[in-house]
Specification:
GO terms for molecular function: helicase activity. The protein is of the alpha/beta class and 633 residues long. The chain is built from 25 helices and 21 strands. The chain folds into 5 domains: 196 residues, Rossmann fold, CATH 3.40.50.300; 124 residues, Rossmann fold; 91 residues, Arc Repressor Mutant, subunit A, CATH 1.10.10; 75 residues, Arc Repressor Mutant, subunit A (Orthogonal Bundle), CATH 1.10.10; 68 residues, Arc Repressor Mutant, subunit A, CATH 1.10.10. The chain has a 7-stranded parallel sheet, sandwiched between helices. Strands 8-13-12-9-11-10 form a 6-stranded parallel sheet, with helices on both faces.
């Protein structure tokens, strides 16, 4: 069995040996046992289900919330000659139907699903007719309300157990506390399951926490000192561009990355960084999933992450080649306060949640008693603007509505297409006269929008196509043509999130909201915020603090984090001072001022501290205001 696994590993991936724990996890899966694998970021989790699935008869169903990662893995498997498909939001009913048919009757080995798809009766019914060899659950911590990224759609995974009761589950995650480990197994109804856990310590990572008022200047010094390739994480999209431009202005090849960029641009930016044409990528937390760049020498957080789980995962993208690397977090007191403010905003009052639901019905023009099963493209930014609501509490309200089974939302934020004319009106008119092809679409844009010469306006390509009575692809082609001719700038939309009404619309006064669940989630999130604060304030060792949080007993300090290095420096100074004090007092007794003045290291407080320590040990004694070295030592 092990030889077969190794043969597959070498045939398709070119490796002659597995990484730690991979073989053990694969063997457990091949034995048909439910398995939970806790492996740090970059530990090779996908190998753990892909290799055994290729040995087993039937199809492996992989559930993941990360659409970009699903697409990447499907593409990667196909390049290896392995049949793989994915179903995610934005696909038409016909596309889904055909894909599922291929999984039932074709030679597909891997079907990737977003968890929201399990709400669909069509998907569940077709899975019933598939010969499923394995269910692989990626980002398994999402199933637990104790996890840092709880997603209600993951609770639907239990229905897979009902459809194929004898098919094993392999749950995979990089971060889980002991409570989450138990919860994952419970929610997935593990039978005789096994848990494989790799140590959370990364020996080559030197964790550094800096309370810093001038982050930009410190960032530059750090980048120059450490050298090599790196990632800088910031909280919002605006900061990605500002920080990247700051680095470029100071001679550092940099670029920015966030979820609002179109897929082609995102891929280009990622490739430039992977191939070291760009040294530093400045990104939101949308960057990093599935990226395995070995030579990342630093990961810098310019804002405090929402949880230690998120921090550990993002910091762990450094040093995958096993060489020394530096996860650095810089913060100010204002950042700590902002983190708490965001926490409060994440738990809006019940009337606000009811109001969001009411506005959703009006936004999509759903009649009372209707709407069940309807899908819509959802622009949450436009929705918030229309009803004058803040985005953060609105997103939280949507999650709670999803948890209670009223709606399902596939992605967090949708940014629509944007468009702007780059030439003056007179020049545009001349262009229209000369180009009959583009004249209709230009007239329509001018007639239906304002300010298009001054700033970007949002466009709906489907609406343009409908009004012009041409295809969507033709509209996109013309908009792209206007950009190529430098007549306009056209920024295509990101992948549109889907919002589905799972129940018929009710009056918001009759809307059931699980208040006890919200209270419990708030308590859990408060614990996670306090854990981040405790990590910032710890005085012992960063690595030990992280391991303790994840339930791993560890007493040995790492020796490389900022706290360990400061402690070592302090110990070195103390040892040298003790020798200086001994030499000075053996030469003759001295009063405290004379003794302190003769010592060469440290400030006066440090010198006095060491003197007191030696007095406590009775290595020096004080008589009549003079210090003597105790000759017994």
């Amino acid at each position: 069995m092990e030889n077969k696994s190794l043969d597959i590993l070498e045939q398709y991936w070119g490796y002659k040996a597995f990484r730690p724990l991979q073989q053990d996890i694969i063997n457990a899966v091949l034995q048909g046992r439910d398995t939970l694998a806790l492996m740090p970021t970059g530990g090779g989790k996908s190998i753990c289900f892909q290799v055994p699935a290729l040995q087993l008869a039937g199809i492996c169903i992989v559930v993941s919330p990360l659409i970009a990662l699903m697409k990447d893995q499907v593409q990667s498997l196909r390049k290896k000659g392995i049949e793989a498909v994915a179903i995610f939001s934005g696909m038409s009913h016909r596309e889904v139907d055909m894909t599922l048919d291929n999984c039932v009757y074709g030679r597909i080995k891997f079907l990737y699903l977003a968890p929201e798809r399990l709400y669909s009766d069509l998907v569940k019914e077709r899975i019933r007719y598939m010969k499923v060899s394995l269910f692989a659950i990626d980002e398994a911590h999402c199933i637990s309300q104790w996890g840092y990224d709880f997603r209600p759609a993951y609770l639907e995974l239990a229905k897979l157990r009902e459809i194929h009761p004898n098919t094993p589950f392999l749950a995979l995650t990089a971060t889980a506390t002991p409570r989450v480990v138990e919860d994952i197994q419970d929610k997935l109804s593990f039978v005789g399951g096994r848990v494989f856990k790799k140590s959370f310590r990364r020996e080559n990572l030197a964790y550094i926490i800096l309370a810093e008022e001038d982050k930009m200047a410190r960032m530059l010094r750090m980048i120059h000192k450490i050298g090599g390739s790196g990632v800088i994480y910031v909280r919002n999209r605006r900061e990605t561009q500002e920080v990247a431009q700051y680095l470029i202005n100071h001679g550092i090849p940099a670029d920015f990355y966030h979820a609002g960029l179109d897929p082609v641009t995102r891929s280009q930016k990622q490739d430039s960084w992977m191939e070291n044409r760009v040294r530093v990528i400045v990104a939101t937390n949308a960057f990093g999933m599935g990226i395995d760049k070995p030579d990342v020498r630093f990961v810098l957080h310019l804002d405090i992450p929402d949880s230690l789980e998120a921090y550990y995962q993002e910091a762990g993208r450094a040093g995958r080649d096993g060489k020394k690397a530096f996860p650095v977090l810089m913060y100010q007191q204002a950042d700590r306060e902002k983190l708490w403010e965001n926490f409060i905003a994440n738990f809006p009052p019940i009337p606000f949640i009811q109001q969001v639901y009411h506005h959703l019905g009006n936004y999509f023009q759903i009649a009372y008693g209707a709407g069940k099963g309807l899908f819509f493209d959802f622009d949450v930014v436009d929705f918030c603007k229309r009803y004058k609501m803040d985005v953060l509490p609105t997103l939280s309200a949507l999650k709670f509505l999803e948890r209670d089974g009223w709606i399902a939302v596939s992605e967090s934020v949708f940014i629509p297409s944007r468009f702007k004319f780059e030439i003056e009106y007179q020049e545009l008119y001349k262009f229209q006269v000369q180009s009959a092809k583009y004249d209709p679409i230009i007239k329509l844009i001018l007639r239906t929008t304002g300010g298009v010469f001054d700033f970007y306006i949002t466009l709906n390509e489907y609406e343009l196509a409908k009004k012009l009575r041409i295809s969507y692809d033709m509209v996109v082609s013309m908009l792209q043509g206007l950009q190529q001719l430098e007549i306009a700038s056209y920024l295509p939309k990101t992948d549109a999130p889907q919002l589905e009404f799972l129940q018929a619309r009710v009056d918001y006064k009759h809307l059931f909201i699980d208040t006890s669940f919200i209270a419990e989630r708030k308590r859990i999130k408060e614990q996670q915020i306090k854990a981040i604060y405790a990590y910032l304030d710890t005085k012992d060792c960063r690595s030990v603090a992280l391991q303790t949080y994840f339930g791993e007993e560890e007493e040995t300090f790492c020796g490389s984090c900022d706290l360990c290095l400061m402690r070592q420096h302090r110990d070195d100074i103390h040892n040298t001072l003790q020798e200086e004090i001994k030499t000075a007092l053996l030469a003759g007794e001295k009063d405290v001022k004379t003794l302190v003045d003769e010592l060469t290291l440290g400030d006066d407080d440090t010198k006095l501290h060491v003197i007191r320590l030696l007095m406590d040990k009775e290595q020096i004694v004080l008589r009549d205001g003079l210090y003597y070295w105790n000759s017994d030592f």
